[in-house]
Amino acid sequence: MKVKKSQKKKGCRMQRLVSLSRSLSSPSRQIRTLTSSPPLPQTLDPQTPPPRTLADLRRRLASESPDLSDFAYSVEVGTKKKPLPKPKWMKETIPGGAKYAAIKAKLRELKLHTVCEEARCPNLGECWSGGETGTATATIMILGDTCTRGCRFCNVKTSRTPPPPDPNEPSNVAQAIASWGLDYVVITSVDRDDLADQGSGHFAETVQTLKTLKPKMLIEALVPDFRGDSSCVEKVAKSGLDVFAHNIETVEELQSAVRDHRANFKQSIDVLKMAKEFAPVGTLTKTSIMLGCGETPDQVISTMEKVKEAGVDVMTFGQYMRPSKRHMPVSEYVTPEAFKEYETRGMKMGFRYVASGPMVRSSYKAGEFYIKSMIEADRAINSAS
């Protein structure tokens, strides 16, 4: 007897879910509860000495954690034929405002690309305008708009032979940033496996040009994995940037299902480790993962632990959103409460900062505001000593 595709999908999902609650008004919507991993802590006793090993941390978290067995973890997305509407916390706002319009006009004038637009980021208007924090940010995408890889979640164009990089791009980026008056800029790129140095030289030149024109500008480079080439990583890490970022994208177990076959968890972790070794003291390292791809809470926690062991300072979590019907479907919508619990767990693990929420992206304005504050505080301490 043949089993329908929808029945297979439901069976697989039931294996991942620990418990279900049908408390929403729609009978087809389900909520997952967080019982498959140790409950996440709220506080740690300040009188207890800090844990020295990962095993010590796990024991302490387990002993001091409250019971969250009824915690609502996620909402399902329905089936392909009968999709459920997005939950209320995933509603997007329409970008606008004078600063947003000015930045967009300058981008078109200088023929620059931003990952904010390419990825259809829901925070675009908030980041470009400065929002509540007043820290205006933008994420510039260099090395063209065509990638040599084809990850299942990404909406950027792909080709084995993209056009050559624009030699004037570093100066164009510097001109744009100087005219915007931004406090913090993220420079990212497509993968360029077709280039001998995989684009690392272009990254370094862009950072150095920006620092020459805007010495106080804080620069984050969100880089590809450079296929694990240490010379490429070293070139960017020593370019003068303030934050070296590389995204592992998803939990270790889902790497091959989500990312291009040339990417993998170990390679990404090695890049983050090398960056910490090569970069000057005080340079922060950062990574990000998407939730809602089919991962379990246990897998998320395990991945966080390995990222922390790699010496990463900052980690962000956001909800995966399917950019088109050609891309990997959303497995589930993780609740804001669950994102908050991952943030709590991450801070207890020792990350210097964790940004976690459904609308958070790897280049996120609110996170950059706190990173900017951390860097300035570190420099003040170093200059006083």
UniProtKB/TrEMBL annotation:
<feature type="domain" description="Radical SAM core">
    <location>
        <begin position="132"/>
        <end position="352"/>
    </location>
</feature>
<feature type="region of interest" description="Disordered">
    <location>
        <begin position="1"/>
        <end position="53"/>
    </location>
</feature>
<comment type="similarity">
    <text>Belongs to the radical SAM superfamily. Lipoyl synthase family.</text>
</comment>
<keyword id="KW-0004">4Fe-4S</keyword>
<keyword id="KW-0408">Iron</keyword>
<feature type="binding site">
    <location>
        <position position="363"/>
    </location>
    <ligand>
        <name>[4Fe-4S] cluster 1</name>
    </ligand>
</feature>
<feature type="binding site">
    <location>
        <position position="127"/>
    </location>
    <ligand>
        <name>[4Fe-4S] cluster 1</name>
    </ligand>
</feature>
<dbReference type="GO" id="GO:0051539">
    <property type="term" value="F:4 iron, 4 sulfur cluster binding"/>
</dbReference>
<feature type="binding site">
    <location>
        <position position="154"/>
    </location>
    <ligand>
        <name>[4Fe-4S] cluster 2</name>
    </ligand>
</feature>
<protein>
    <recommendedName>
        <fullName>Lipoyl synthase, mitochondrial</fullName>
        <ecNumber>2.8.1.8</ecNumber>
    </recommendedName>
</protein>
<dbReference type="Pfam" id="PF04055">
    <property type="entry name" value="Radical_SAM"/>
</dbReference>
<feature type="binding site">
    <location>
        <position position="116"/>
    </location>
    <ligand>
        <name>[4Fe-4S] cluster 1</name>
    </ligand>
</feature>
<feature type="compositionally biased region" description="Basic residues">
    <location>
        <begin position="1"/>
        <end position="13"/>
    </location>
</feature>
<dbReference type="GO" id="GO:0009249">
    <property type="term" value="P:protein lipoylation"/>
</dbReference>
<dbReference type="InterPro" id="IPR058240">
    <property type="entry name" value="rSAM_sf"/>
</dbReference>
<keyword id="KW-0496">Mitochondrion</keyword>
<dbReference type="InterPro" id="IPR006638">
    <property type="entry name" value="Elp3/MiaA/NifB-like_rSAM"/>
</dbReference>
<keyword id="KW-0808">Transferase</keyword>
<feature type="binding site">
    <location>
        <position position="147"/>
    </location>
    <ligand>
        <name>[4Fe-4S] cluster 2</name>
    </ligand>
</feature>
<dbReference type="InterPro" id="IPR027527">
    <property type="entry name" value="Lipoyl_synth_mt"/>
</dbReference>
<dbReference type="InterPro" id="IPR007197">
    <property type="entry name" value="rSAM"/>
</dbReference>
<keyword id="KW-0411">Iron-sulfur</keyword>
<dbReference type="GO" id="GO:0016992">
    <property type="term" value="F:lipoate synthase activity"/>
</dbReference>
<feature type="compositionally biased region" description="Low complexity">
    <location>
        <begin position="16"/>
        <end position="46"/>
    </location>
</feature>
<dbReference type="InterPro" id="IPR003698">
    <property type="entry name" value="Lipoyl_synth"/>
</dbReference>
<dbReference type="GO" id="GO:0005739">
    <property type="term" value="C:mitochondrion"/>
</dbReference>
<keyword id="KW-0949">S-adenosyl-L-methionine</keyword>
<dbReference type="InterPro" id="IPR031691">
    <property type="entry name" value="LIAS_N"/>
</dbReference>
<dbReference type="GO" id="GO:0046872">
    <property type="term" value="F:metal ion binding"/>
</dbReference>
<keyword id="KW-0479">Metal-binding</keyword>
<feature type="binding site">
    <location>
        <position position="121"/>
    </location>
    <ligand>
        <name>[4Fe-4S] cluster 1</name>
    </ligand>
</feature>
<dbReference type="InterPro" id="IPR013785">
    <property type="entry name" value="Aldolase_TIM"/>
</dbReference>
<dbReference type="Pfam" id="PF16881">
    <property type="entry name" value="LIAS_N"/>
</dbReference>
<feature type="binding site">
    <location>
        <position position="151"/>
    </location>
    <ligand>
        <name>[4Fe-4S] cluster 2</name>
    </ligand>
</feature>
<comment type="pathway">
    <text>Protein modification; protein lipoylation via endogenous pathway; protein N(6)-(lipoyl)lysine from octanoyl-[acyl-carrier-protein]: step 2/2.</text>
</comment>
